[in-house]
Design goal:
Blueprint (H helix, E strand, L loop, with lengths): L2 E5 L6 H13 L4 E5 L8 H7 L5 E6 L8 E6 L3 E9 L2 E8 L5 E8 L4 H17 L4 E6 L16 H13 L3 E2 L9 E3 L2 E3 L2 E5 L1 H6 L4 E4 L10 E4 L22 H6 L2
Parallel strand pairs: 1-2, 7-8
Antiparallel strand pairs: 1-14, 2-4, 3-4, 5-6, 6-7, 8-12, 9-12, 10-11, 13-14
Length: 258
């Protein structure tokens, strides 16, 4: 799986479109989520400007005025989507990774700054997770922190952070740690970690080489996040083993097949 998740803070400028197109091409992306597009409509023409291949498909959540908006795009030859679900602040793509046959969902989330709206979003996603019993990748701008270290100021909203952690725990998701940097959002002297990618434990087992990279933010307040098998750096790379792999029902069979 190769996933791009970015709050682009608008998608009208040609330079932002070129940046998205280059990221998709350079990292061989399979699924792309763009958040806060600020667009009230989408078109094939726009999508082909961003991802000029014949197999691209897309689905969009329109912005409310100049706020919000999500554009989901995917390469059907690599991730074959069988169902698209959506709601206020999220889009879920349910399908199959063509290369491995892995069945699951890739869900993109854009949470609003209002805590009450975020609580409703966490509730909707809990319902979605219960309705579709399959592995998840969950990516997006969650507009919430978990720890004091997630903000340069050290400030934390205890209620907001607690409800966010409970939502992640209830959905049985594990966060991917960024390979560099602490923060994903920058404005003036303020810095926060608002953008994240999570997945179900079995996704870590099925795709053990995935890592999360934070890229330079460029023309947005937010940094793009790339989850994928990234080019290896020179030198010795230690073997990684996750204890929870042992609890997967197919662990022994997968190991034997390697």
């Amino acid at each position: 799986m190769q996933i791009l998740s970015w709050n682009s803070c608008g998608l009208g400028l040609a330079r932002k479109k070129r940046t998205v197109s280059k990221l998709i091409r350079d990292f061989d992306i399979e699924v792309c989520f763009l958040f806060e597009t600020k667009l009230q409509s989408y078109s094939d023409r726009l999508v082909f400007q961003l991802w000029n291949i014949s197999n691209v498909s897309w689905f969009g959540n329109e912005a409310e005025g100049t706020k919000g908006g999500i554009l989901a795009m995917w390469d059907n030859s690599k991730f074959a989507v069988s169902s698209v679900e959506y709601g206020h602040g999220w889009i879920g793509l349910f399908g199959q990774n063509v290369l491995t046959g892995f069945l699951g969902a890739v869900v993109g989330v854009y949470a609003l700054c209002n805590q009450a709206d975020r609580l409703l979003l966490w509730k909707d996603l809990r319902i979605l997770k219960a309705a579709f019993e399959c592995p998840w990748f969950l990516a997006g701008d969650f507009n919430e922190t978990m720890l004091r270290s997630d903000r340069s100021s050290g400030f934390i909203n205890k209620v907001g952070s607690t409800t966010f952690r409970l939502f992640i725990d209830d959905c049985n998701l594990i966060e991917y740690n960024m390979s560099e940097g602490l923060y994903t959002w920058f404005r003036g002297g303020s810095m926060s970690k608002l953008d994240r990618i999570f997945s179900s434990p079995c996704c870590h087992l099925q795709f053990p080489l995935l890592s999360l990279r934070r890229l330079p933010r460029g023309f947005s307040d937010h940094c793009p996040l790339i989850l994928g098998v990234l080019p290896a750096e020179k030198g010795w790379i230690p073997f990684k083993f996750m204890d929870y792999w042992l609890h997967h029902p197919n662990f022994k069979d997968i190991v034997k097949g390697i």
